[in-house]
Amino acid sequence: MEFSALLTSAGINIGVCVLFLSLYSVLRKQPHNFGVYFGRRLAEEKFQRQDDYFSFERLLPTAGWIVKAYWCTEEEIRQVAGLDSVVFLRLFIFSIRIFSITCLVCLFGVLPVNYHGKEMTHNHIPAESLNVFTIANIIEESQKLWVHCIALYIITISACILLYSEYKYISRKRLAHITGSSPNPGHFTVLVRSIPKSDNELLDDTIRNFFVNYHGSSYLSHQMILRKGHFQRFVDRAERAYRKFVRVRLSVSERNGRSNMSRCGVCGVRASSFQLYRNKFIEAKKADLTNPEVVDAQKNCPGALVFFKTRYAAVVASRVLQSSNPMLWVTNLAPEPRDVYWSNLWIPYKQIWLRKLATLAASVVFMFVFIIPVAFVQSMMQLEQLKKMFPNLRGLLNKSFFARVVTGYLPSVVLLLSLYTVPPLMMLFSSIEGSISRSGRKRSACLKILFFTIWNVFFVNVLSGSVLNQLNVFTRPKDMPTMLAELVPKQATFFITYVLTSGWASLCSEILQVYNLVYNFFSKCICCCKQNTEYVYSFPYHTEVPKVLLFNLLGFTFAIMAPLILPFLLVYFCLGYLVYRNQILNVYYPKYEMGGKLWPIMHNTIVFSLVLMQVIALGVFTIKNSPVATGFTILLLVGTVLFNEYCRHRFSRIFEAYSAQVSAHITGFASEQCLFLKDMCAQDVIELDRDDEQSGRMQEIHQHLQDAYSQTPPSEGSSRSGGQVPIEQLIMEDPAQDASESSQELCDTVQEVSEAIHEHHIIEEGKAHSV
Known about the structure:
The chain is mainly α and 771 residues long. The chain has two domains: 3-182 and 349-654, no CATH class; 187-247 and 275-344, no CATH class. It has 32 helices and four strands. A four-stranded antiparallel sheet has the order 2-3-1-4, sandwiched between helices. It is a multi-pass membrane protein. It is found in: Membrane.
């Protein structure tokens, strides 16, 4: 591939980026697109409707959003979007810093050495082959390889220093987040599964008797995990009717400038009346243990949530083996209420290991099946093969411009489109695995996508010369360094174009929100549907984190092999930093908090990238017959592994603990080694419990535990604010039309509630007379 083909690909992507960014700056000003580009702000505020008047200012592209995104402080981002967004943006800060250093070293040191590696007559630069700029242009036993070895040391040492400082900084942030968070119901709650069933008593009584017998001093209460039945569907209908009526109240009050419905519309009930009545009615149904429906539901109960009086009691109960049979009375600390993945709590515990094995096998099979589109992509880069495969296009491919577009741009586009099928499938596999929390499911999907991306995008493309090369990776592992050293420089051109298409263009697609924009246009302008913003997207960490880590891997592995990739990567990280800050501030809503647990994944992947860079350099120095450089590279490789082990022992346990279960009496960073549930000292937890008891908060916490865990899905029930309706579910477009629909639905629901109460009272009176 010639340098001119690379310039053609870069020109196309620069044009696409400018077009998309200009469109975004215009479309975000249009009132009918506020739901697309300001979803988080709509979810957290009473959005003030603007008059739909015409203005030329709305049609002019501006860069004001860049200034606002850049000058927003990290603390403001943490308050708005949580610690996870801060950790994600710190990954970009690390990448910008390390690749700024790498660009300076490699562009001004390594690249000239590669270009003049052989004595040859050079052509005009646009006509030069890109191989001239790679390490393949260095002759054997050349003294110039010392430049590459020194550059390797500078990059590795700089990366380790920055990684350590970032790990320390994020650990401090995580500890501050843990100690500063409010009491979480998940700290007092234990999930119990694989409960033995008895024919002599209900499962409800079995759970109560077991924990009263063995944890009597600390046991508070419990809640059965039941499948959604007729009663739960009835409750969901009541809550949907209530939310519609509240939307009418908010919209009408904003339009009229006054609150005509000061309570809940025509019926005058309080905003939490449905929630309070719902809890009372559920308790009444639970108390009726002779009801055949209740008995049948408890027979199929997969587990229960057990509440304890103190955090320490919950920690002990979750860690202690409850039975001599480890497959019975299995206990784990429960996720926080908004993070519970209720669908997977219904999965029998004995199926979990089978599900994990099945999803692992399915993921591996899919990784190898995906080799087919990757091989097709690589064949597109060979012009002669394309002419053989498509003889009818031979005349078109003989034209230089079309040949540059096809070989320099289309392969990476095809691979990018093929990769869009991966995240939904991996998320499905993670759901089937049986994770009990939404954050756990997303972390599992993140790891699967990361492994898939590194294998199929990097290794398969590098080894795609033939299927035999791919099999040699497993049959000849000792030859891996030399094999990669031979093949990696040859694939530099493809990965440079991949950075342009999958990197630059995907960022512009992300900020433009193409899918949501098209959906919004068709629903409002074509189908004339009313706006329905009852769902706000959470940030897709499972897709974006692997993408950024892949570009880090490409940057490190090609730093001394093909330094031309570095400027394009640096532009990607700078643009991505601004784009994702804007998206986090305006679009995505944090529906649950992982507490920064993604950073160890990021750290380990970056260290793997450093090791891979050194292994490839080791193979290159071996092929080029430079034994001294090879020896120094081995020392650097050992030092990198030791650095990773030190970081693992120094920091990793902070991230292995649950979201927030440590004492508020942490006096310094040096005490962090005792802040983990696995080997945490009892003093910290007990002191935190004592503080709550002395301040009178413990009784309030106990009362909140009773209704904190609701099996209503987050999009239909109270998911964030302790029983209050999420604000993003209160936004509407046409209050008059919605009022006419919701008033009738509300009356029907109230009538059903009254009939259910009457029926329940009749049953109770009949039981009293029979007694």
